[in-house]
């Protein structure tokens, strides 16, 4: 069993992060109740001989830092022009740093899943593009996948299916070209 290898890419869209002025009316809206967004994960609780599922509270809310990072990414994604990227953007949900909609296929953020591991890593490097090595490929999901499609010219995994999360990536042998494309366009 091989663990995924994480590669934060600080090369694309490096921000002047901490001096970005958030004005009173940004060009987009995030749900104003996001300070109380709650994330739940299911755990099994044994009661007698029956197994039942109970929602256990995970991370209670998005903190102010996470919200500012999500808004920062959302602003950059509004600059995307490719039709395939625009279609992928409709499948994002700005309730987590990856932009994953947990209701879509492969969108689970349950503890122990690859998506959950990627979210943990993304929280350490919130303004970098994250690629995860999976076998002979480097993959990105959510917001990062949209950026790969827009700026590195990659095609989304699974085409433009509307029932699954945005995913994109490249073979290991094409990683350098993908990085070059990101830095050239970013």
Automatic annotation (TrEMBL):
InterPro entries in the cross-refs: DNA_mismatch_repair_MutS-lik_N, DNA_mismatch_repair_MutS_N, MtDNA_mismatch_repair_MutS
Domain DNA mismatch repair protein MutS-like N-terminal: 119-186
Superkingdom of origin organism: Eukaryota
GO terms, biological process: mismatch repair
One Pfam family hit: MutS_I
Protein name: DNA mismatch repair protein MutS-like N-terminal domain-containing protein
Gene Ontology molecular function, alphabetical: ATP binding; mismatched DNA binding
Membrane-spanning intervals of the chain: none
């Amino acid at each position: 069993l091989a663990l995924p290898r994480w590669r934060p890419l600080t090369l694309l869209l490096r921000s002047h992060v901490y001096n970005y002025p958030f004005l009173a009316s940004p060009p987009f809206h995030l749900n104003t109740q996001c300070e109380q967004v709650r994330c739940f994960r299911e755990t099994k609780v044994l009661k007698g001989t029956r197994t039942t599922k109970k929602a256990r509270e995970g991370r209670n809310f998005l903190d102010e830092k996470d919200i500012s990072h999500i808004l920062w990414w959302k602003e950059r994604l509004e600059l995307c022009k490719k039709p395939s990227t625009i279609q992928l953007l409709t499948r994002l949900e700005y309730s987590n740093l990856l932009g994953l909609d947990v209701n879509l296929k492969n969108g689970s953020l349950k503890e122990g899943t690859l998506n959950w591991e990627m979210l943990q890593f993304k929280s350490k490097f919130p303004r970098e593009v994250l690629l995860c090595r999976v076998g002979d490929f480097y993959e990105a999901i959510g917001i990062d996948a949209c950026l790969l499609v827009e700026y590195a010219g990659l095609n989304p995994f699974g085409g433009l299916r509307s029932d699954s999360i945005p995913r994109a990536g490249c073979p290991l042998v094409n990683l350098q070209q993908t990085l070059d494309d990101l830095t050239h366009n970013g």
